[in-house]
Amino acid sequence: MALKLEVCDDNDMHRTFTILSSAFGHEHPYIDAVFPSHATASGREIGGERLRAIKHSDPNTTFLKITDTGTGEMIAQAKWNIYDGEVPEAVELDGDFWAGEEEKEYARYLFREYLVPRRAAIEDSGGHLVSLDILTVDPKHQRRGAGRMLVEWGTAIADKMGVAAVVEASKYGMPLYQSAGFEFVHHHVIDLPDKWAGRDKQTFTWMVRPKKTVD
User: Fold this and answer.
1) SS3 of the chain
2) Measured by CB atoms within 10 angstroms of the end CB, which terminus of the chain is less buried, N or C?
3) What is the pLDDT of residues 163-197, one digit of tens each?
4) Is 0.85 surpassed by the pTM of this model?
5) Measured distance CA(208)–CA(182) in Å, rounded
6) Maximum CA pair distance of the chain?
């Protein structure tokens, strides 16, 4: 069946978050911390509302979806951040989504530390950068080309702008990103303070796709 790429509207945000939650499962401490109870119905409802708020508040963000035209089902999503000459202010994670202050503190710590390489890349580029923030495919619909469509949307924009693209890659996403021209830079580990030493560390691979110029 054919796949169609479109920009998300507000009504897509809950499905967007459900795909995100299903794809990540509980393998990523960052997702579990930033989106508590994300695998539950109530957690997914809240997560969808949070993504909708980001969609409305961040002018650099574009949410995308892939739909199976045969069934009408949304099967994949991505969030691209496009910076065209502006370095935005750093955003602090906030809200009342956590069970207690320590869980909120932990989530804020991971959120801040996770974005260190990306923040440096935005600043070093003078705000001329394209960043793949999140890309997930419904586990039931993987290996159909949806992920590649979402990646190529963003890399085409980067090439048109003549800027680099960056991504924090999981081990599952690395082969796709490498095939799209992203290059390994370093393996990033978020070290935890002693008080959280017993928790799993979040890791990812920082990848950069060098800028190209399209005539």
Assistant:
1) CCEEEEECCHHHHHHHHHHHHHHHCCCCHHHHHHCCCCCCHHHHHHHHHHHHHHHHHCCCEEEEEEEECCCCCEEEEEEEEEEECCCCCCCCCCCCCCCCHHHHHHHHHHHHHHCHHHHHHHHHCCCEEEEEEEEEECHHHCCCCHHHHHHHHHHHHHHHHCCCEEEEECCCCHHHHHHCCCEEEEEEECCCCHHHCCCCCCEEEEEEECCCCCC
2) C
3) 999 999 999 999 999 999 999 999 999 999 999 99
4) yes
5) 5
6) 54
pLDDT tens-place string over residues 30-60: 999 999 999 999 999 999 999 999 999 999 9
| C-alpha distance from residue 65 to each of 1, 51, 56 (Å) | 16, 13, 17
Collect all residues with Cβ–Cβ distance below 8 Å to 84 and sequence separation of at least 6.
127, 128, 161
Q: Which two tokens stand for residue 193?
A: 């303070």
User: What is the Cα–Cα distance from 104 to 212, expressed in whole angstroms?
Assistant: 40
- Find the length of the chain: 215
Burial 19-51 (b: 16+ CB within 10 A, else e): bbbbbbeeebbbbbbbbbbbbeeebbebbbebb
Treating both helix axes as pointing N-terminal to C-terminal, what angle do 101-114 and 116-124 enclose, rounded to 10 degrees?
40
